[in-house]
Structure prediction request, 202 residues.
Amino acid sequence: MPIFFQQQINEFTRLGIWKIEENETFFQSNVPQHRAVTHPHKRLQHLAGRYLLQYLFPGFPYDMVQIADTKRPFLPNEAFHFSISHCGDYAAAIVSTKYRVGVDVEIPADKVAAIKEKFLSPDELQLLPNQQDINWLTICWSAKESVFKWYGNGKVDFKQHIQFNKLQVDTNSIDCFFTKNNTPLHIQYHQFEKLVLSWVVN
Prediction:
């Protein structure tokens, strides 16, 4: 079974990464497709992310999932809070019965260095052990993306609205302040050999 990583965050919240090795038929027999996705690989990612929700919380009500105007999937009754991300052959999901959540998974790539000053302030760059390191820059991008997903209402300027205050290497975490609703947040991240995962629970 290609569960690549999973973690019980707290008694209400679970996180996982699925390495996609199955074909579309495997997922379609288990998961309804909530929106039309024409690109075959993106459709596979979409289905794997949905599959992972019920893997983490058996009985997750797929049939009740709706899509907001911001394209964020949600449950109207908020019996579960959840977030999904995918990249390459990986799908990540976080599900909680109590807390609002956000997750992001990224494959480090050189292109992030070219845009680092668009999403990181000079003060934030100073927090990094190495400002040129692609992995650190990817962690920062992923961390801000997870906050964006946690917020869920769109229209977020990564540089202006998501402000890093402290990077703690020993605990794989970043403290930040989300200015759109004046909320301090604690972001966790995990670095694999060729993959970066970050998540927010609040």
